[in-house]
Amino acid sequence: MTDFTLREVANLSGVSHAAVYRHFQHKDGVLEILSSIGFDRLASLQKKVAKDKKNPDDYFVKLGLVYIQFAVKNPNYYKLMFQTKREKESEQLKRSKLRSYAVLVHGCRFYLKAKKRKENHRSFALMSWSLVHGFSNLSLETSFPISEGKRLQLNQIELAETILRFAT
Asked: How far is residue 4's CA from residue 126's CA, in Å, rounded to a whole number?
């Protein structure tokens, strides 16, 4: 995914090589923009789930499932977003990351309050993120969720839902 040149970006985009170099000094800039787009898309999907909070347990599960589904359906974005080390991040990328994480933190605050639970919402958000992030990575990097789901007669998303319900 990171093995490309800015000339190739220009050719694929149908713009001059000079145009690409006016906007990006190096290919890391392109990767950061793509990562920002990925975080913004994820946040948008999370916000759609946040509109329906009738049942706190269902809401919490849906919030986790949308993350996993995003990762599985958009593996290239997901890998750019989470598996690309950067020495210094742009302000745009920092804001995009924060918007996505903020939806989760606010969702966990709502969930804990609705369930009258006393856990710290930030700690709960980190636990929740770790759970869905781990499942997403296993889904992308191994066949374990699919093979284990078959043993349990569940598809990958049904298995994810079952695991998320254990956390509620």
From this structure: 34
